[in-house]
Specification:
This protein has 286 residues and is α/β, with parallel strands linked by helices. It is built from ten helices and 13 strands. A five-stranded mixed sheet has the order 2-1-3-10-4. It has a five-stranded mixed sheet with strand order 7-6-8-5-9, sandwiched between helices. The longest helix has 17 residues, at 209-225.
C-alpha cells in the first residue's frame, strides 16, 4: 500500500513530513512525500494579513487532499485554521515537542532592541514586555530568517523552538520564553496529519491522545474568539489548564485568562476587550 504524504517544500516542512512518515511506515506500507507550494511560500514579502486569512500555508495542501492527489497532509498544527475544513479531518497529532518561542541572537530583551518577526501575536506580546522595542517584519524559512538577522543588523529574531530543534539548530536558541511571558500559538510544537473524513485509519497509529486533548482545546478557544492572522490571539494548554489571550497589535493592552473550558475562556476574553477598541478588533478578525 502506498500512502502519499503532502507537505510544503521547505527543509523544515519536509523534515517534519519525514518524521510523520516514520510513524506511518509498516509492513506493506510505503510512503511517498509530495512537496506542494502554498500561497505563503509563493509570497515571502507581504505580511500574512495581506496574503489572506490564517491558513496561507495550508489551503493548497487541503485542496490536494480533496482532489485525491495526496492521501495525507502533514501540517505544523499552528498553521491550520481553527475550524475543520468540510470533508477533511485531523486523523492524528504527533506527540508534541517544545511549544515555546525562542529568542535568537540575544539572551534577554533589552530596551530599544531591533527584533525581527512577522507574527503579530509575537509583536503584541514583545511590545507589552518592553514597549521601546522596534519590531521589524521578517519573512522566509528558518534559515533565511537567521541569515537576515545578520544582514539587516537585527539584535535578535523570534522563532519557534521546535522548528530550530527539528533542523538541528538548537545552538541558535539563546533564550526560551516561558508561556507566561510569550504565550504560544495554538498548536505550536505539534504536527497534525490531515486526511479525508472517513479515512482516519490511515494515520491513527501516529496519534498521541494527550497532544490531541491539548491542541483541540487550544484550537476550540481560538475558534470561539474568532482569531486568525489578523488578530493577536494565542492559546496554550500546559497539561493542567488552558491559557489564552487577545491583544492590541501594538501591545497597548492584553487580556489574558486561564481556565478549563475553552468556550468559557473565549467568552471571558471577548467580554474583557476594551470598549473603545472592540469594534476595531472585531473587524480585524473578519
Amino acid at each position: 500500500m502506498l500512502i502519499r504524504v503532502g507537505s510544503r517544500g521547505s527543509r523544515l516542512a519536509l523534515t517534519q513530513a519525514e518524521l510523520a512518515a516514520s510513524h506511518l511506515r509498516g509492513d506493506g506500507i510505503e510512503i511517498a512525500l509530495v512537496p506542494i507550494t502554498t500561497a505563503g511560500d509563493r509570497d515571502r514579502t507581504k505580511p500574512f494579513g495581506e496574503i489572506g486569512a490564517r491558513g496561507v500555508f495550508v489551503k493548497e495542501l487541503e485542496e490536494a487532499l480533496l482532489d485525491g492527489r495526496i492521501d495525507v497532509a502533514a501540517h505544523s498544527a499552528k498553521d491550520m485554521t481553527s475550524t475543520e475544513t468540510d470533508g477533511l479531518a485531523v486523523g492524528a497529532y504527533l506527540a508534541r515537542e517544545d511549544a515555546r518561542d525562542a529568542l535568537c541572537g540575544a539572551e534577554r530583551l533589552r530596551p530599544d532592541m531591533r527584533i525581527g518577526t512577522a507574527s503579530i501575536r509575537r509583536r503584541a506580546q514583545l511590545l507589552a514586555l518592553e514597549p521601546s522595542l522596534s519590531i521589524e517584519p521578517l519573512r522566509g524559512n528558518v534559515e533565511t530568517r537567521l541569515r537576515k538577522r545578520g544582514e539587516r543588523g537585527l539584535d535578535a529574531i523570534v522563532l519557534a523552538a521546535c522548528g530550530l530543534e527539528r533542523l538541528g539548530l538548537t545552538g541558535e536558541i539563546a533564550y526560551r520564553f516561558p508561556p507566561d511571558e510569550l504565550l504560544p500559538e495554538a498548536g505550536q510544537g505539534a504536527l497534525a496529519l490531515q486526511v479525508r473524513a472517513g479515512e482516519e485509519s490511515l494515520v491513527v497509529r501516529a496519534d498521541d491522545p494527550e497532544t490531541r486533548r491539548r491542541v483541540e482545546a487550544e484550537r476550540s478557544c481560538v475558534a470561539a474568539i474568532g482569531g486568525g492572522c489578523l488578530a493577536p490571539v494565542a492559546a496554550h494548554h500546559d497539561g493542567r489548564r488552558l491559557s489564552a489571550l487577545i491583544a492590541d497589535e501594538d501591545g497597548g493592552w492584553i487580556e489574558r485568562r486561564t481556565g478549563d473550558d475553552p468556550l468559557d475562556l473565549a467568552r471571558e476574553l471577548l467580554a474583557a476587550v476594551p470598549a473603545t477598541t472592540r469594534s476595531g478588533t472585531d473587524a480585524s478578525r473578519s
